[in-house]
Design a protein that fits this description.
The strands form 5 sheets. The protein has an 8-stranded mixed beta sheet with strand order 3-6-2-1-9-11-12-10, with helices on both faces. A 4-stranded antiparallel beta sheet has the order 13-18-20-19, with helices on both faces. It has 428 residues and is α/β, with parallel strands linked by helices. α6 (198-206) packs antiparallel against α7 and α8 crosses α9. The chain has a domain at 3-254: 3-Layer(aba) Sandwich (Carbamate kinase). β15 (303-305) and β16 (314-322) form a beta hairpin. 33% of the residues lie in helices and 24% in strands. The chain binds adenosine-5'-diphosphate, aspartic acid and magnesium ion. Aspartic acid (ASP) binds next to α5.
């Protein structure tokens, strides 16, 4: 008998039929003799719809109230799921984040879990109940307010519960069969992976692969939680995310796994580019620019500075940041134009970012050459490049991104013979 934490995402509980399907899966796990704790997301696109509604009544919704609003989505699905399980003759109890002891810091909209005190969950388990917890939400002890963990945060709820309850595995269910070498909605020939290192998964998640939320992978890595990403809609085994020293339960003793050089390709259309042009090429200007940007709250990703034209002694600095942060950053920079002494500000929200991730890059050469060749053969122009130890990213025109990703995926020999199945969801 094991303790299994299961997380069901929005596409898995989009309507009454789906909720009943999920309830049956949970009950089957219980029947097999396991203790089950479930983290559940809001139904379908509920969170997006609530956000749209908030933006209709207020241009910048008050963060505390936004969390009150968004956390209601998960309350609906948790109660419905518990009811569905009840009607199948099993005891189930639903809990909000605060009832479940998900203690966070006070940062509305992006709260971090600081402690998990699952006293009530343990009691319910001891009494033989199936436990359902509202994902994506927590409670701050100082403000005594409800918080949310950021988009995709139910994954973190599940992993944090698995860590606190010392679960055997954290199963994350969604509308695809596991983690693929690329988003199957963008690259239908993407290949499902049996396992992936948490280091590689972190890079993929940080660069646009929303199949797992980056903070959940981080949390799992830190607390030694084994993640199994799999599908609600089929019973096939999914993908194991392996931290240091963890082994896939599927791997036979003593077998040596051949590590592919490239684990996957990620695409991201959520970034924008700002160019500060005519910046005096003297020490301290980059510091001034990025201090202003940081104070605006923006999270800068890539940075490129051109060689200055000798005749003018001025240079251009471009950087990327989330589209949602661009307006505030531009306003902050415009306000400091005279002090910093630059000439112009340009904003471009039509960019796309393509990243190639693989731990094998540490030991193999020629990985970037393959990327650049594939893009060149496709006639695709590169605007920015950045690298980490196990990742290469390029910025392109957003319109070129899907085509570029398919070409690059094929160039690394990642294409599968069969097309991947996306079972549900709108991809929103
Ligand atoms: P949920 O609603 O269950 O949280 P998400 O929509 O957040 O599900 O995540 C599942 C989606 O992630 C898939 O439908 C797929 O389009 C997308 N995705 C992006 N990159 C990958 C990848 N490498 N492997 C699998 N799915 C991916
Ligand atoms: N419902 C939240 C969202 O849509 C949290 C989650 O689904 O993980 O982002
Ligand atoms: Mg998700």
């Amino acid at each position: 008998m094991a303790l299994i934490v299961q997380k069901y995402g929005g596409s898995s509980v989009a309507d009454a039929e789906s909720i009943k399907r999920v309830a049956k899966r949970i009950v089957d796990t219980r029947r097999a003799g396991h203790d089950v704790v479930v983290a559940v997301s809001a139904m379908g696109d509920t969170t997006d719809e609530l956000l749209d509604l908030a933006n209709e009544v207020a241009p910048i919704p008050a963060p505390r109230e936004l969390d009150m609003l968004l956390s209601s989505g998960e309350r609906i699905s948790m109660a419905l799921l518990a009811m569905a399980i009840h009607s199948m003759g099993f005891e189930a109890r639903s809990f909000t984040g605060s009832q479940a002891g998900m203690i966070t810091d006070a940062k509305h909209g992006a709260a971090r879990i600081v402690d998990v005190t699952p006293v009530r969950l343990r009691e319910a388990l001891d009494e033989g109940a199936i436990v359902i917890v509202a994902g994506f939400q927590g409670f701050n002890r100082d403000t005594r307010d409800i918080t949310t963990l950021g988009r995709g945060g139910s994954d973190t709820t599940a992993v944090a519960l698995a860590a606190a309850l010392n679960a055997d595995v954290c199963e994350i269910y969604s509308d695809v069969d596991g983690i693929y070498t690329a988003d199957p909605r963008v690259i239908p020939r993407a290949r499902k992976l049996d396992s992936i290192t948490s280091e590689e998964m972190l890079e993929l998640a940080a660069n646009g692969a929303k199949v797992l939320y980056i903070r959940a992978v981080e949390y799992a890595r830190r607390h030694g939680v084994l993640i199994h990403a799999r599908s609600t809609f089929s019973s096939v085994e999914g993908t194991y995310v392996l931290g240091e020293g963890q082994r896939s339960p599927r791997e036979t003793e003593g077998a040596v796994m051949e590590e592919p050089i490239v684990a996957g390709v990620a695409t991201d259309l959520t970034q924008a580019k700002i160019t500060v042009s005519g910046v005096p090429d003297v020490p301290g200007k980059a510091a001034e620019i990025f201090t202003v940007v940081a104070k605006s709250g923006a999270n800068v990703d890539m940075i490129v500075q051109n060689v200055s034209a000798a005749s003018t002694g001025r240079t251009d600095i471009s950087f990327t940041l989330p589209k949602a942060d661009a307006a505030t950053a531009l306003k902050a920079l415009a306000g400091e134009k005279a002090r910093i002494g630059f000439e112009n500000l340009l904003h471009d929200d039509q960019i796309g970012k393509l990243s190639v991730v693989g731990a094998g890059m540490r030991t193999h050469s020629g990985v970037s050459a393959t990327l650049f060749e594939a893009l060149s053969e496709g006639g695709i122009n590169i605007e920015m490049i950045s690298t980490s130890e196990i990742r290469i990213s390029v910025v392109l025109r957003g319109d070129d991104l899907a085509e570029a990703a398919r070409a690059v995926h094929a160039a690394y020999g990642l294409d599968s013979e069969i097309e991947a199945i996306v079972h549900a969801g709108t991809g929103r």
